[in-house]
Amino acid sequence: MADIVIDRVVKEFGSFRALQEVSLTVRDGEFVALLGPSGCGKTTLLRIIAGLEKQNAGRVVIGGRDVSDLAPRRRGLAMVFQNYAVFPHMTVFENVAFGLRMQKAPQAEVKRKVERAASLLHIDSYLDRYPAKLSGGQRQRVAVARALAVEPAVLLMDEPLSNLDALLRLEMRTELKAVLREAGTTTIYVTHDQTEAMGLADRIAVMYGGKIDQIGTPLEVYATPATRFVGGFLGSPPMNFIKVRCAQGMARIGEAAVPCPPADGELELGLRGEDASLDPGGSGIPFDVRVVEPMGSHLLLTGSIDGQLARIVAPPTAHVTAGERVALTVDPSRLTWIDGATGRALARA
Amino acid sequence: MPARTSWIPYALIAPSVVFLGAFFLIPLVQTIWLSFSAGDELSLANYERMVNDLNFSLAVRNTFLLTLVVVPVQVVLALAMATMVSKLEKGRDIALWILTIPLGISDLAAGLAWLALLQNTGYLNSALYALGLIPGPVGWLSQETPWSLFFAIAAAEVWRATAIVLVILIAGLQLIPKEFSEAAEIFGARPWTRFRRITLPLLKPSLQSALILRTVLAFEVFAVVYALGGRNFPVLAGEAYTWQNENQNYGVAAAYAVLIMAISLAATAVYLRVLRTRPEQLP
Ligand SMILES: Nc1ncnc2c1ncn2[C@@H]1O[C@H](COP(=O)(O)OP(=O)(O)OP(=O)(O)O)[C@@H](O)[C@H]1O
Ligand SMILES: [Mg+2]
């Protein structure tokens, strides 16, 4: 059992609060992606879980054991560092073998496990090279192999594939997921690549400004964002936010009206670009198209709704020209309503 | 881009070449020449005289003994101090400043300070006498107590010149990103293992510089020895001084100088070879 409970962890650097009461539970064998913009505290959280940094408040519990005061080597985890931290004075083999050597594993076992991890990451042909003679992407894979070789119960990865080309990244991602699933490794995986997070994770925790804004399955965070930030951060194009006034359960947008939840004050309508469909000649939400970009699989329309910027995804065969006003129909159940003042989504009916 | 005029680099380094030539190379060649000549012809007479002198083997033995004891002690001490200082979060600079104070004291002054401590009427004897541990003044620095004299000189040298090793090692430690040690820690390395398997190998280039510097200076040890033991503890540089000033025999003094240089060069060559870091193993 190696579940991770992060309980109201606070981290301050001087007067700067890098983490504000972060709580997160990762189940045994679960794969959680930590997704967020640069500087939001992902690495800091990972370093606290690993024990490299001491939290100012809160607890970290791994496998039912409070590890808050334990040294990193007693926490039973492995980590891939954001800047790799591959030992320059050791060959690739010795780098990957390092954890096993520390466990005093027999030579035959070391060799077997190193070769297995190396072939998984396609670095088997560099085993006797020194890291200085490797490319950034190869070095990064050495760091991942070093962590996988010890077959840890808990694996922390800080953007482990960020330096690979798109094709290799896709391949590594799939293999990594398969291996970790098979081994039942509890994994926290930091990334700011949302497709990576979507593809890999059982659940995604979206971090912003030292807080976790939302945690849920990829589908949940995508379709029902908890805050304006989550909606805007996930998806390409990002969610559109249209300021509306809500009166008697109806929000008026141009000539159209959409049912809205009861609330006072400013509301924002969160609309995913692909949740709107064109309704030629209909009386839906008016959308003034300014730019039409054919993307192959779809058309990306940029324009404005009620004078506010919006991006809509249309079928590749749709006939839309720039400068045109089209009508959009939406499924009210797929809309997100955001409280304009707090930026948080209103509870769904 | 216009073609670079080829004489400019040479013109720029010319002043330093002239400086080195005038104040270093010419005296060096002169010294070597002096040591190998008798009158106007080439001869090994000076070296013969040096080797056959009563104090020669003693000076060689003492110099090597001192170097072999002092340099390792200094390196171990400096490593320990550097590791501790670099772990300090507050007051690092002030700690470093205090630890390097002995560097600012000339070696003769350092020798005299230790003489004030250790001579017959010195502070050590006064303290021991006051505590009732000794009945009267004890000679620590005389010919009859060669070992206490040796340890006094070694202690003074360690006190005086460990800081230079410390400064070099701290600079070296700062160049090692902390992630290496952190990664080792995550993968189960205890502090001593981390030091041995990560810090020490990555510190090798700095250790090499420090060792070369300290060893070369240790072979030239003179002022501290002179202050504490005079000729009771002959060393190579001291013998050169005696032949030059008391015996007025510049040829034998030059032979000693050349011998010291040869030993230093040999030691440097050994360090360069044994502690070399292959370029691909650099961070
Ligand atoms: N040692 C430190 N001292 C002071 N501030 C720090 C320190 N480490 C991190 N911070 C600050 O804490 C915040 C979070 O940093 P962190 O490295 O966790 O970001 P991140 O989410 O990993 O970003 P990225 O995606 O760019 O790696 C940043 O604003 C950073 O400036
Ligand atoms: Mg980071």
Low-pLDDT runs of chain A: none
Helix segment count of chain A? 8
Oligomer: heterodimer
CATH architecture type of the largest domain in chain A: 3-Layer(aba) Sandwich
Alpha-carbon Rg of chain A, integer: 24 Å
Annotate the secondary structure layout:
The complex is a heterodimer of chains A (349) and B (283).
Chain A: E1 4-13, E2 16-26, E3 31-35, H1 42-50, E4 57-62, E5 65-66, E6 77-80, H2 92-102, H3 107-120, H4 136-149, E7 154-158, H5 166-183, E8 186-191, H6 194-200, E9 203-208, E10 211-216, H7 218-223, H8 228-233, E11 240-244, E12 246-247, E13 250-253, E14 256-259, E15 267-271, E16 276-278, E17 285-294, E18 299-305, E19 308-314, E20 325-330, E21 336-339
Parallel strand pairs in A: 3-8, 3-9, 6-7, 7-8
Antiparallel strand pairs in A: 1-2, 1-4, 4-5, 9-10, 11-15, 12-13, 13-14, 15-21, 16-20, 17-18, 17-20, 18-19
Helix pairs in contact in A: 2-3, 2-4, 3-4
Chain B: H1 8-35, E1 37-38, E2 41-42, H2 45-52, H3 56-87, H4 92-99, H5 107-118, H6 123-130, H7 146-174, H8 178-186, H9 191-202, H10 204-219, H11 223-229, H12 236-245, H13 250-274
Antiparallel strand pairs in B: 1-2
Helix pairs in contact in B: 1-13, 2-13, 3-7, 3-10, 5-7, 5-11, 7-10, 7-11, 8-9, 10-13, 12-13
Bound molecules: adenosine-5'-triphosphate and magnesium ion (MG).
Residues 13, 16, 18, 36, 38-44, 82, 192 of chain A line the site of adenosine-5'-triphosphate (ATP).
